[in-house]
Amino acid sequence: MTPNNDCQDRRDTIAVLVLGELDNPAVDEIKKHMDTCRDCRALYQALTEEEEVVRSAFKAVNDRSKAIQDNLIAQFDIGSRVNEDTSGALPESEKHVLSEVEGTQQAHTERSKWRILMRSRISQLAAAAVIIIAAFLIIYLLGGSMDGSNVVWADVLEQIRTFRPYVFRETIKYDGKPSDTKRFMRLSLSRRREIRSDGSIWVFDMSEKPLRRLTLYPDKKQAQEMTITDMEPAKDPDLLRIIGKLQDGAEEELGIKQINGRTVKGFHCPGKLNDFTIWADVETQLPVYVKVRQDGLKRTVIGEDFEFDVDFDLSLFSTTAPEGYSVEKVEKKGYTSIVSIQQMIERSTFETYVLSKKPSWTRNVQIVEVSDPVRSDSDVARVYYLIALADDGRHLVIAQSNTISMMLGQKIKQCQLMYTSANGLKVWSGGPLKWHSQMLLERAEHIIIDPPSEDRVGYAIESPDDTFSIIAVNGPINDEELHSMVESLVPAKEYPKD
């Protein structure tokens, strides 16, 4: 049996897996196969997305159907009775024609014809009414309305959380600096193409290892093909993906208005770190305009000109340079180098912290800059790790980045506030932080060598300006050790220079 036939035979199994009806031994077997088979993995993703769409649609119908159905049926019954009461009546034009031939066989024939025509017409109108009512029922049940007043935030979240290929324009403006605009084309959560304000084109593919990035400079006919050898497949940071993580119930409705000829309804979702304003099309419940204000980062992000369910030419997402370009091939690793405090200050736009003294249980602290060159060359893709090795294996890792700060700002409600230091830093524990501590220790494993231990601990640190960082310790620490470490954290820009 060839590999293709083998995969063909697995399609039914993958479908049963998506429906949640596959037994455990078979689940393990098919998942092991998908780990190494790109085609089956793609089929599983496509079927999963389709299943989510179907489930969402049926959920909307089930949640809203009965009262609306009863109301529409009652109205239709009234309309039917009116039609029955008047079905024998003839229009004035018919009466005039028949009056001229009253009492003849022709009159009888003509009257019969008119009655047949009238009944046929009434039947057509009734059928049309049923179709119209059915159409309005479907629109109403699935969240639409003529004026958009019944569109709710939950409807918009449902649509945003279902990925579909799309394009949009994103503008980022840091306070006091010129704005920068890019045109994004997203084929999937792992593949994108962007056209930047300087005319360059960047294509990213994170769908499989090795990760790849193509950079084109059309005016010079130059290209760079970059391969990242040490990073695993991942999903791309995405504006809508971040919005999709918001919760239902915390929004403020902003009413109805027109944007570029489309009727939209607005929602405001305030937050400490990210303040979201979303205007969604009342027919599709998909975003038309998005604004995110990030006071901690001193910037505003705007998304507009959205177009969804785009049938892309797949060649646009190739990471191989087109013919006629001179090509530079680059191979590199995602993890970069050890940097100084001054370099960290100069390269980051967010507030970074350093330890003014090393923790009592560790050796000296070093700063490691980690960049993700496939996702972007921007500050958003740059992470700074403070790493201190410990003789007893309780190695320390503190991670700081824009992405981490935004992520924790959304998840901090799952944690518990356990301590506030004299310098205004809040220490959070619990929730997903133990899992995050494992992630940090794994990311730093090329330096600390030891794998994450079972008794590792994780904390989130919230600064007075509402930014967040993560702390991971590869073993337990007592309150005195934790408090002393947090008290020694100071803004990097305030750290005394040598």
What average pLDDT do the residues reach? 79
Q: Any idea what the radius of gyration is? A: 31 Å
Residue share in helix: 25-40%
How large a portion of the residues is in β-strands, by DSSP E?
25-35%
Spans with pLDDT under 50 lasting ≥5 residues?
Answer: 60-69, 78-105, 107-129
The tally of helices reads 13
Largest sheet: 12 strands, mixed
Based on secondary structure, the structural category is alpha+beta
Instruction: Indicate the multimeric state.
Output: single chain
Anisotropy-based shape: globular
Q: Going across the biggest sheet, name each strand in turn.
A: 7-8-9-10-11-1-2-3-4-5-6-12
End-to-end CA span: 69 Å
User: How many individual β-strands?
Assistant: 22
Tell me what the structure shows.
- The chain is α+β, with helices and mostly antiparallel strands.
- Among the domains are: 156-315, Lipoprotein localisation LolA/LolB/LppX (outer membrane lipoprotein receptor (LolB), chain A, Clam), CATH 2.50.20.10; 334-494, no CATH class.
- Helices cover 36% and strands 28% of the residues.
- It contains 13 helices and 22 strands.
- It has helices spanning 3-9, 11-18, 24-36, 38-86, 92-99, 105-141, 153-161, 239-244, 341-347, 402-411, 433-443, 445-448, 479-487, and strands at residues 166-174, 180-186, 191-195, 201-205, 211-217, 222-228, 252-259, 262-269, 275-281, 287-294, 299-308, 326-332, 335-339, 353-355, 365-371, 382-388, 396-400, 416-420, 426-429, 457-462, 468-473, 489-491.
- The strands form three sheets. Strands 7-8-9-10-11-1-2-3-4-5-6-12 form a twelve-stranded mixed beta sheet, covered by helices on one side.
- Helix 2 packs across helix 4 (38-86) and helix 4 (38-86) crosses helix 6.
- It starts with a helix and ends in a 7-residue tail after the last strand.
- Residues 60-69, 78-105 and 107-129 have low confidence and may be disordered.
